[in-house]
Amino acid sequence: MRITNYALRIVTAFAAVIVLLASSSVTLAAENLKIGEGFYQFESSGGINKNPIDVFYYRPKNWKNGDKIFVVFHGMDRRIDYYIKGLKKAADKKNILLICPQFTREKFPGNKYYNYGNAASNDKNQQTYNIANKIIDDAKKRFGATKSKIIFFGHSAGGQFMHRYLFLADKIKADLVIAANAGTYLLPDENVNYPYGFKNISAGKKEMKRAYSQKTIILLGEKDISRTSKGLPKSRMDDKQGLNRFERGKNFFDQSKKKAEELGTKFNWQLKTVPNVAHNAVRMARAALKYVD
Q1: In this structure, what DSSP letter does residue 123 have?
Q2: Among 58, 143, 258, 263, which is least packed by CB within 10 angstroms?
Q3: Global model pTM greater than 0.90
Q4: Is residue 122 over pLDDT 90?
């Protein structure tokens, strides 16, 4: 009888611990899954990401595990506010969770660490593209999104970040990648230095094949044709790709399709254009949401 009572006390104590842990987990999940706008900090030790990254989100009332997640990579202005404000209505309608990480100038200065992902560094911990994967892994845990499909969207500098991510991240963790209105591109040329080509970086034909097989949309505003548009790169190397963002995007798509054929690999990309839209982040993001089934 003594052994039985002792065993009973052990089982009771163990059960109490389980209940306490479960209660704590539920409390944490409830905090992170609150309806509407929210904010948290993503922390990952080591490398370039030694400081926390602010992550903003918008959760529709009816969103649940299994519903889609739309991750926004902002432009060079590093702003998040107008994405949240401008996409809330569409997110509610399509029941999509918005995740918007902020790559500040202080933590990711200039083109080198954001647009170009510091890919010239041989140290993977110093490159930016893999942080996108870490952010979404963290978000899926926070929101309990074990079954949710992931859509990555980037506009302007974010479009640069997104299309280079396809070639340079260790893994592609998005179900769909949408790169919109990028100012300049990583063309499939191994004789041209990065960021315009694949020379001097640790990526080549293998990474091209992987990228071309990934479900991707190159999204272009049909009126993004101004030569005086703010932030448009205008170096000799930029202008070789086209005189405006619309021309450059079409050129990138055409060269990529041709390269996929040359490599004998599947080309799972689409080129989509948005009528009557120039270099407008929110309008392009709304257009992108139309392709999210």
Answers
A1: -
A2: 258
A3: no
A4: no
Where does the chain have alpha helices with state H?
2-32, 81-94, 110-113, 129-142, 157-168, 205-213, 236-239, 245-263, 281-289
Question: Are the C-beta atoms of residues 164 and 186 closer than 8 Å to each other?
Answer: yes
Q: Which of 290, 289, 268 is nearest to 69 (CA)?
A: 289
Percent of the chain with pLDDT over 70: 87
- Report whether pLDDT(1) > 60: no
Distance, CA of 273 to chain centre? 20
Identify the DSSP state of 108: S
| Nearest CA-CA partner of 245 in 227, 258, 257 | 227
Quick: pLDDT tens for 140-195.
999 999 999 999 999 999 999 999 999 999 999 999 999 999 999 999 999 999 99
Beta strands in the chain (DSSP E): 36-42, 53-59, 69-73, 97-102, 150-155, 176-180, 216-221, 269-274
Q: 191 or 30, which is more confident?
A: 191
- Residue where the block lists tokens 């611990």: 17
Q: How many CA atoms lie within 13 A of 162 on its CB side?
A: 29
Length of the chain counted residue by residue: 293
Residue closest to 245 by CA, chosen among 171, 181, 170: 181
The 3-state DSSP class for residue 54 equals: strand
